[in-house]
Amino acid sequence: MRAGPALLLAALAALAAPATGGGEHRTIWLEPGDEHLGVTLRMRSDAFSLVGGVRALVVHEDEGELRLTYCNRLADHTIVHIHGINPQENGDGQDGFPLVRSWTIAPGESKHVQYALRQTGTYFLHSHLFMQQHHGLVMPLIIRERAPPPGFGIGAAELQRAHDALVLLEERCPYREADPKPALCASDQAEQVLQGMRHHWAKVESSLEETFQGCSDAGDGLDVQFLHHLVNGQQHYNLTIDPPQRPPQDTPASELVRVRILNGASMTSYKVFLPSNSTIIKADGSWVVPQSLPHVWVGVGQRYEVLVRATSAFMLSAAAESFTHVPLPHERASLRVAFNTPVPDTAPGGRRSRGSSGSGSSSSGSTDVLDQLLAATGTADDSIDGVLEQFPPEAVSFADAENYTYRITGHHGYMSLNGSGVIFPEPAAMRAGGGDYGVRCVGQPAEMVVRYGGKYCVTLINADADAHVFHLHGHEMTTVETSSAHARRSQLAAWRDSVVVPGGNCARRTVCFVADNAAGGYWPMHCHMSYHLAAGMLLFLRYEEQSEARGARRELPEADGLCARLARLSRAHELAQEKVRDWSIPLVVLALMGAGAACVAVGCVVRRRRKQARYYNMSLSAAVGSAPVTHSSGEREREESERERERERERERAMVMP
User: Fold this and answer.
1) What is the band of 634 on the pLDDT scale with cuts at 50, 70, 90?
2) In a 3-state reduction of DSSP, which class is residue 176?
3) Sequence ranges of the domains in the chain
4) pLDDT digits over 433-471, tens only?
5) What does the H/E/C string look like for 546-563?
6) pTM here?
7) Half-sphere exposure of 319 (CA within 13 A, CB side)
């Protein structure tokens, strides 16, 4: 589909999308960036808002739906994943993972997605292809809640009067630790680093048995280093807040600032030192029992929301994971929040200026700022998941859950899960088109086969020296074992979508989830560190089909492994796309003929999306070797009704055609 017709059809599809919750339609352009510090790509939209001076997509749960159209102005294919959002439909790749080639967005084309708003909190959009996130395709998403859960202890009125501040953690200008530090930041530096890492992959297979069986000591540095660590695009970001004017009797003793911390980096976990009088209220978008801590490790892809009761200016500082050495100046970044008007001191008799640069609490609880600057961060750990508890508590027991165990092995993420990996193609390979999609399996990667409503636990044993951050698509997981405790804890740990697995000494953690995604199909679980994902640190859970549920699972021959099934699935989708692509030119012609013809075209676009979604279920069944999904009688009636509407539209089309 060429650019012009594609964008026109995207607009028609957006008009046709059912507005069940009255959600506003938003268009996001994916286009070249300004190349500053290697930011060669960017997301742009008139729908973006400023949150504490930072661009973000802001919606409210009352909208009911999030409706987006992505328009690709890049030279390469792309795809957009909303990190932490769990869509209950994935027939056309709404999740934003490039499972099949036809789900990606080709240059000059567009894609419409919509999600029911079932979650609130802080999330982010990012490309899920190769290094595009690192190059700038990332955008915070804030879904504002109507109110906190009943009994939370912090009321809706308090949260509504809180000022929002964003802390978007990123790093720029990568280089391999084994290479000389570069003087400048080249636009293709990330690709150069990955190419250097690939030279080491060939050595991994010969030493795999030793790596698989042994336990490495904790590392003393990351394989990939960066010249810059940033908060909101700057090393030290200053935010000045203008509180509303209030009568003296209504002036609060402190201002509330809701700091939304989001690690959008590609490799680095950060130790974030929190201001005094701060309370963690959310983790990865899920409510937690309010907890005050001096600092928190924020792994790649993780998010925290912290409520600060500020009586003066305050600082939040972040140090890149430094292991045993004191963080260097370029490895630290910070947010400083100041206020433009005075506020009553919490101590009686006297007022304190909130705008002065010297005042304020920049300490982290009992930790002195100087101690922060002069102390090594150590390695990223998962201790917070032994502290934070879900709110409200859900009585979910995983005592009878089915268990899977994966040993993190290999080197630089290569052959990394039980000695296997799944490597997805780069955008340049997609540009060529034709042939197989090009997903490459190294070793014998396995699937977690799950059934809807079942309970499952995954134990990750890290034989590698590096810490890893694992993200599960389409589901939430809770911790039942942390690496520090080495014991199963209560079933009340916070629900999360991303968890840190500490490095060294075969650190282990167990997370559990309920297979409750109505979309079924394939869902990835992978290390969110970009270079490790590019190396294949990825596994899939797959919902079993009806034929599998009725009897024993069919043992597939070794030659018919995961990548063979993914290749068949991709070809099936491309075939479906070719069948509906023939509609494109007639639809554009009809749209240009006037409003009546446009309405007909809109209906066809909607049907096209529905047909592709249904075809996904059938092609998935074919790909795994099971029978097609059987539609219920209600579905058959709906299909017959749709065919009748199709005949009516054909009659209308005949009326408007010359």
Assistant:
1) very low
2) strand
3) 3-151, 170-174+221-380, 402-543, 568-656
4) 655 678 889 888 888 999 999 999 999 999 888 899 999
5) HHHHHCCCCCCCCCCCHH
6) 0.83
7) 25
